[in-house]
Design goal:
Elements lengths: L30 E7 L4 H16 L8 E7 L4 H14 L3 E5 L1 H10 L5 E6 L18 E5 L4 H11 L5 E6 L4 H16 L3 E6 L6 H8 L5 E4 L3 H4 L2 H11 L3 E3 L3 H5 L3 E4 L2 H16 L10 E2 L4 E4 L1 H6 L6 H6 L2 E2 L3
Parallel strand pairs: 1-2, 1-3, 3-4, 4-5, 5-11, 6-7, 6-8, 8-9, 12-13
Antiparallel strand pairs: 10-12
Length: about 325
């Protein structure tokens, strides 16, 4: 089978920032890092960019002593598996899969090439590693488990009288199944009932959102790659129906959700890139503990919230790390 020609089959990414000082002799030899993501959306793209920035800071500069290859599976798990096999066959120095589906595909494709995953909610639950502190084998990485309790608390603060929350997710994404389970547990503690709507593919996002109109007081979108890639269609439903939409990632706030507490995925990428640099410098992935993403921001979008019939509290807006949509 001919492998599909995907966007950015081999991306140099050399123009991200000015060149750093010349590399030391220890890693003057050109290294190859292959990066793959299940789909393209701002959070995953920022993660990729952060990886490259961190590698430059560590002395690995694209176009000088580093070659960066990038491919997106465009939301197709079968394509993710093809990309993983292709990367395994080309034998780069490190493979960096972004998201749980891509990480699972890469883990299944190679047991000898170093793998540093990122943006994976539950590495143990996804069977990527058995022990987070001592992963062993050829794989380690960074978890981005969302602060679910903070998300529920945010919605309760903004909507004190709300009773029912809708959640949109793809049940085929293991990370989303984990997040929805945690969300339902935290929602129950806060006095919410939860109505689920399935989104097996991105084209299902809008009808799934419409199915929640009249049934819930607000909609929550976890860091689900399928739904986030079709976010604008969900926002359109929220604005038409005056149904507030909240997200698990802060990048989606700039695209129209009302608010979120979450990671800056450029920083997630940088944290991941630091691990990749350690591997390129000689450490074994299996000896590096799986890390947890650090740092959370409160991001709000008062304009979009108003379009969905919601007024964000003034004190919430004042303490936000970032206000967008103005």
């Amino acid at each position: 089978m001919t492998f599909p020609r995907l966007l950015c089959a081999a991306v140099a990414l050399a123009a991200l920032s000015a060149p750093v000082a010349a590399p030391t002799a220890a890693w003057a030899q050109t290294r190859t890092v292959a990066i793959t993501a299940i789909v393209q959306h701002p959070a995953l793209d920022a993660t990729r960019d952060g990886v490259v920035e961190a590698l430059k800071a560590a002395g690995f500069t694209p176009g000088e002593n580093l070659k960066v290859e990038y491919q997106s599976a465009q939301g197709n798990p079968a394509t993710a598996a093809q990309i993983a096999r292709q990367f395994a066959g080309s034998k780069p120095d490190v493979i960096v899969p972004i998201s749980t589906p891509s990480a699972q595909a890469v883990a299944a494709a190679t047991r000898d090439i170093p793998v540093v995953f990122t943006a994976v909610t539950d590495p143990a639950g996804a069977q990527l590693v058995k022990n987070l502190d001592k992963p062993g084998g050829n794989i380690t990485g960074l978890s981005d488990l969302s602060p679910i309790a903070a998300h529920v608390g945010l919605i309760r603060e903004v909507l004190p009288a709300a009773k029912r929350l809708g959640v949109l997710y793809n049940p085929g994404e293991p990370n989303s199944v984990t997040l929805v389970k945690l969300f339902k547990e935290e929602a129950a503690k806060a006095g919410f009932s939860v109505v689920e709507a399935s989104v097996p593919k991105s084209s299902d996002a809008q009808p799934a959102a419409r199915s929640l109109v009249g049934k819930v007081d607000a909609v929550y979108i976890p860091l689900d790659n399928t739904v986030v890639s079709a976010l604008e269609s969900v926002i359109a439903v929220g604005q038409q129906a005056k149904l507030p939409v909240f997200s698990g990632d802060t990048d989606s706030v700039g695209r129209g959700t009302a608010a979120s507490i979450g990671f800056d995925y450029l920083q997630v990428g940088k944290q991941t890139g630091e691990i990749v640099a350690r591997v390129l410098k000689g450490e074994k992935p299996g000896d590096i503990p799986v890390g947890n993403a650090k740092g959370t921001d409160l991001v709000v979008n008062p304009k979009s919230a108003a379009a969905m019939g919601l007024t964000l509290p003034d004190d919430l807006v004042k303490r936000a790390t970032k206000v967008v949509g103005q």
